[in-house]
Amino acid sequence: MFSRDVWKEIFEAIRKNKLRTFLTGFTVALGIFIFVTLFGMGNGLNNTFMKFFSDDATNIFRIFPATTTLPYGGYKAKRQIEFDNGDLDDIIKEFGPLVDYITPRIQRSGTVTYKDKSDNYSNLGVGPGMQAAEKTIIMKGRYVNTSDIRKKSKYAVIGRMVEKDIFQGEDAMGKYIDLEGSAFKVIGVFQDDGGDNEERNIFIPFTTRQLLEGNNDKIGQITLAFNEAIGYNGSLKFEKQLDDFLRKKKQVSPKDPMCIFIQNVADNLKRNQQFANVLKIIISGIAFVVIISGIIGISNIMVFVVKERTKEIGIRKALGATPKIITSTILLESVAITAIFGFIGMILGIIVLNMIEGKVLEDDYFITKPAINSGTAIFVTILLVICGTLAAYIPARKAARIKPIVALR
Question: What's 174's DSSP letter?
Fold first, then answer.
C-alpha cells in the first residue's frame, strides 16, 4: 500500500546521505552501462558476419581447381587441374535436380578506355546465373543472357563506379568501351551492396572471354547454386558427392587435400554465426559478472546502511513501528536507488552505442551497427532492480528483528 510518509522518509534519507546514495547508484548504473555496451558490441560483431555473407547468395558452392600433391592414375604430382565447358554440362547431367543454376567465372584485369579516359578494372567472363549469385542489382539495361553466351556477343555490363569514373556523368548505355583492344557495347549498369570495389567490376559473356583467349573452352572457377530445399545438411552431402564426382572425372586421388577445393558458403555462414554467437555468449557472461558484482556491492552497502541506522531503527520500534514497516522502508529505498540509477545506466549505454556507430568501428574492429534490443535492456535493468531488492532483504530483515533496547544501547 502506498504511504506518502514512507516515501518522504526514504527521499529524506537519500538527501542526507548523498555520497552513500551516489556510490550505491554508481555501482548499479555502471553494471547496466557495461552490460548494454558489451551486449551491443556482441550484436555488432554478429551484424558484421551477416553483412559479409549477405552481399552474395548463401546457397552457393564456389569450386576452384588447384595443383595435385599426390600421384594418381598414372599422373605425376603437381599437375594443374583445369575446368572446361564440358564440366558444366556433366555436373548438370549428374546432379540436375539438386542444381538451381551453374555459371563459370573467368576473372581477368585490363585497361578499359572510353574516349580519352581510361583505367584498370577487373573483367569477369560469366553466365547469366552470376547475377543471382552475386546479388547484382541492375540499375539500367540488362544483364548477360543465354543468347549472349551462345552468340559470343561483345557486350559488357559495367559497375556504377566504372560509369562514374570513365564516363564522367555521361550515360554509358549503348556506348562502346575498349577492353584490351576489343570494342564492347555497354548493355547494362549495375550496383552492388558489396560497395565501391564490387561496382568497379565489368561482366562479359564467358564465351566471349574464351574467344578473346584463342577460342578455348577453359574456365577458371565454377559457381553452383544448389536447391535450397535440400537444407544445410543436404548441402554438406551434396558437397561431398560433387567433390567425389570431380575427383573421379579429373582422375585425382581421393586423399589429395589440395587438387579441388569447394567452398560451401552456407557452411561458412553457419560456422561464422556459431563463432559470433560464442563470442556474444562470452561477452554477455562478462557483462553478467559485472552485474553480479554490482548486486554484491548493493548488498554490502545496505548492510552498512542498516548498521548506521541501528539507533534510528530502535527508536522507531520503541515508538511502535512494526517489523513489516521497517523491512519495507529499507527495501523501498533499495528499489528506488537501483531503479533510478539502473535506468540511467541503461539510457547512457544506448546513447553510447548510437554515438560510436560508424565506418571506423566497422573497418578497424569489425563491429557493424552495435545495438541492443530495448526489451533486453529493460529486462536486464528490471532484473537488477529485483536482485538489488533481494540483496537488501537480508539486512532489512535483520534490522526488523532488532530489539529496541539493544538498538538504543
Answer: T
Closest CA to 129 of 234, 205, 29, 215: 205
- pLDDT, one tens digit per residue, over 114-132 is 988 999 999 999 999 999 9
Tell me the average pLDDT across 284-298: 75
Across 200-204, 216-220, 311-315, 346-350, least confident range: 311-315
Band of residue 56 on the pLDDT scale cut at 50, 70, 90: low
Question: Residue 407's closest CA among 298, 299, 321?
Answer: 321
Q: Which cell numbers in the block locate residue 219?
A: 574456365
Q: How do residues 339-382 score in pLDDT, each as one tens digit?
A: 888 899 899 988 888 887 655 566 666 677 788 888 888 888 88
Let me know: does 143 contact 156? Beta carbons within 8 Å.
Answer: no
Report the alpha-carbon distance of residue 218 to residue 402 in Å, rounded: 91
- Neighbouring CB atoms inside 10 A of 130's CB total 21
- Smallest CA-to-CA distance from 175 within 162, 198, 145 is with 162
- Are 68 and 258 in contact by the 8 Å Cβ rule? The answer is yes
Q: How far apart are the first and last CA of the chain?
A: 33
Cα–Cα distance measured from residue 79 to residue 256, given in angstroms and rounded to the nearest whole number? 12
Report which of 154, 162, 174 is spatially closest to residue 113, judged by C-alpha positions.
Answer: 162
C-alpha cell at 290: 559485472
CB atoms within 10 A of CB 147: 11
